[in-house]
Every structure is written in structure tokens, then in C-alpha cells.
Design a protein that fits this description.
Blueprint lengths: L23 E14 L2 E14 L3 E5 L6 H8 L7 E6 L2 E2 L5 H11 E4 L11 H11 L5 H14 L15 H12 L6 E5 L7 H16 L3 E5 L3 H4 L4 E6 L2 E7 L8
Parallel strand pairs: 3-8, 3-9, 6-7, 7-8
Antiparallel strand pairs: 1-2, 1-4, 4-5, 9-10
Helix pairs in contact: 3-4, 3-5, 4-5, 5-6
Length: about 260
């Protein structure tokens, strides 16, 4: 079970309870997103209905500009929908204020970006500890111990004191995953997490995601790589802002 500061199902910045696998963790109802551009309005998502169960490994695929990243962004509260409703473990994410959404995301969703987004002036360990401090979790000693534990999970304990630019792309991405796990969120959302990695580093990252699914995490992975998408237990295809395919496969053998 995940720490819940006030029993409010993840609203106002608390951590949501760890739901049973198989329960609808994320629910989208008629979600739309429109951007205003110099050339006029651009519709990125069109009336998307979607449910994602706890413990799923979901690959979100589609061509460039199809709406994949927008879908991840509205799911995690990075961007706001222009229509529809988004619930994460019964929390109405679309109704949260800017202040609430930042606190809620910091505790409930770990985000892994394609370009790592590690702070170059902090060590790898300090990068991993940062979300704990921002959300006022754990004592200083506990943050250090937890940070080292997370780095051990991604085989980076020896690099704990290094600055990000000194690490390889694969090492930086694994450090970013450790940072995403800092506050023990039930959801990990990733946008092209292997896009800048070689095949060996990419395989290491995907195997780590599989291990996290075995531990009960819910993984959302935007990818254009069909081979990687096949490793997920579910594949969603987006085209022109529409959800055109949703294949719920038999769960792969992740050697749990």
C-alpha cells in the first residue's frame, strides 16, 4: 500500500492507495484537446474514451503528430484537456487547480522523458532525491538511503556521485527512471524512453519496466518502435487524435 497523507484518494497532493491489479485505475471520458496556433486550431485529441487497469503495461503507438504525447500529457496533468473528464483512482484530475496538480503528480505519477531532463548541476543521487524533497517526504537520511536503494535497482550505485553529463545515454535514462520512482508512485508514464538509446541500453530499460509491472506498477509507454510495443501487455494506436485500435493481449511472461 502507498502512503496516503490524508486519505483523499490522491487529491490535493496525497498519494493514492495502491489499487488491486485489474481495477480501472485511469478513466478517460470524451477527452479532447485543441491547441490554438497561428494557422488556426489544431485538434490533438478527439473524444477519447479509455480505461487502464492497475498493473497494466500499456504501449501507446502512432505516427508523429498523432496525439500520443498529448494523451500522456493530459493523463499525467502536464497538460489540461479542453473537454471531457480524466479520473485517476477516482481523483478528477481535470478539476484540480494548478497548485493541486503539481502536488498530485509529484506523488502519484513518475514521468520519464525521452531526453532524461536530469538537472546537470546535481549529482545523480541528488537528482533522485529531489522529488522527495519537493514533496516533503522522508527525513534527509531516509532520502539518502532510499536514493541509494533506487540507484541499486538500476545498477547505478557506483555513479551516485557523478554529474549527469558524465554518464552514457542509457545510464542517464536509468537514473531518470530511478528519479521517477522516488516517491513510490503507482503510475510510471514514459515518452519514447528508448528513442535516444542503443539496442543494449534500450533492452535494459524495457526489462526494468517489465520488472516494475511485476511489482504492481502501471506503465504507460509512448513509443514508435513496434518491437517494443509488442513487449507490452496492451497496445493502443492513436491516429489524428483518435483512438483507432486497442489490443488487450494475453499478459506476456515477464518472469515475475
Amino acid at each position: 500500500m502507498y502512503l496516503n497523507n490524508n486519505g483523499s484518494n490522491g487529491q490535493n497532493g496525497s498519494i493514492i492507495e495502491n489499487p488491486d491489479n485489474g481495477k480501472a485505475l485511469i478513466v478517460l471520458r470524451d477527452v479532447a484537446k485543441t491547441y490554438s496556433t497561428a494557422a488556426g486550431e489544431f485538434i490533438a485529441l478527439k473524444d477519447v474514451d479509455l480505461e487502464i487497469r492497475a498493473g497494466e503495461f500499456v504501449a501507446i503507438t502512432g505516427k508523429s503528430g498523432s496525439g500520443k504525447t498529448t494523451l500522456i500529457n493530459v493523463l499525467t496533468g502536464i497538460d489540461r484537456p479542453t473537454g471531457g473528464e480524466i479520473f485517476v483512482c477516482d481523483t478528477p484530475v481535470h478539476e484540480l487547480s494548478e497548485a493541486q496538480i503539481a502536488g498530485w503528480r509529484g506523488l502519484n505519477v513518475g514521468v520519464v522523458f525521452q531526453f532524461f531532463q536530469l538537472l546537470p548541476t546535481l549529482t545523480i543521487l541528488e537528482n533522485v532525491m529531489l522529488p522527495m524533497g519537493l514533496c516533503n517526504l522522508y527525513s534527509r537520511q531516509e532520502r539518502f538511503e532510499r536514493g541509494m536503494h533506487l540507484l541499486s535497482l538500476v545498477d547505478l550505485t557506483e555513479q551516485a556521485g557523478e554529474m549527469p553529463p558524465k554518464l552514457s545515454g542509457g545510464e542517464q535514462q536509468r537514473a531518470a527512471i530511478a528519479r521517477a520512482l522516488a516517491n513510490d508512485p503507482p503510475i510510471i508514464a514514459t515518452d519514447e524512453p528508448t528513442g535516444n538509446l542503443d539496442s543494449v541500453a534500450a533492452e535494459s530499460v524495457i526489462r526494468l519496466f517489465e520488472e516494475l509491472v511485476c511489482q504492481g506498477k502501471t506503465i504507460l509507454m509512448v513509443t514508435h518502435d513496434e518491437d517494443l510495443a509488442q513487449r507490452a501487455s496492451r497496445k493502443i494506436v492513436i491516429a489524428d487524435g483518435l483512438l483507432i485500435s486497442d489490443l488487450d493481449k494475453e499478459r506476456p511472461d515477464y518472469s515475475c
